[in-house]
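Re: weekly structure request thread

Next one in the queue (329 aa):
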Amino acid sequence: MLNSRTLLLHLRSQWFSLAMVALGVLAWAWPDLGPALNPRNGTKHLIIAAVFLSQGLGLRTEEVRRGFSQWRLHLFIQLFSFALLPLACWLALLPWRATLPEGLVIGFYLLAVLPTTITSCVVFTQLAGGNTAAALFNAIAGNLAGIVLSPALLLLLIGQSAPVRPLEILIQLSLLVALPFAVGQALHWLLHARVAGWRRRLSLFNSFSILAVLYFVFSESFRSGTLQSIGADSIVPLALLIPAHLAILGLSWGGGRLLRFERRDLIAILFCAPQKTLALGIPLITASLAARPDLLGPATLPLLVYHPFQLFIAGLLKDWVGADRAPHA
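Done, posted below.
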């Protein structure tokens, strides 16, 4: 039987997962608090910029250079995100097309064609001891490619216009990701003798930052009334997103092992390839259905269900796949 000290140590080791659950309950109980703390997404944007400043400060320049040059790894992640998942989604929906609401079908297609997340894939890779530089490259490259590829793939799947505002998204990525990371790298070059002693604190800061972003995502999901808009004919396909995500995680990990990527690269694959961004998804679907506002609610459901769940699972996985653990069979 566990004594109180052993139980306390176990709970401390799982503090991140427990914090996620607590924040989820808080967001459910007081859904208006999150938007009040995050007016016009300003707080979330500041946190994201701070995270990438921290990443730039903590990563060695030679590690960044090596991570950015791993084209085989990057190709696997991007093909998984933009080719394999859209194809799998199209095949999976074939039996459902005649019975599912039109907006929900569009929402599933949208989810499949999106790039990886901008922030969480990098932070979870770093917290698990993975190849952070590679995750950073794929977050930036994937979202830049997504400006063109996601609307084009959505157009291919649903057969109607899927416009976005590429300049606006490019500016946002530059201000929130590229510029803070470049400043962090410059500070790393100036303060490299001291940075080594800051790594634990930077890691802790990133953990709290991603928890804050998660809380804002949870709050918005509850506040938007997503659950109330789910009809009886939508419950089963939406619920299937949960085992589908778990299967996608297994497929990405197994594919990476089959191609003999080293463990740090496998961790980057696990947190990049299966994840889908909310930041590009909502503007894309809003613009695409500007002429059909009646479809907008159902079309956002798959992303609003999938996105918080993927972050919750990533929080649980980060310790299990940590690079310091022995490889799993």
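Residues 103 and 294 are 8 Å apart (CA to CA). The two ends are 29 Å apart (CA to CA).
Next request, please.
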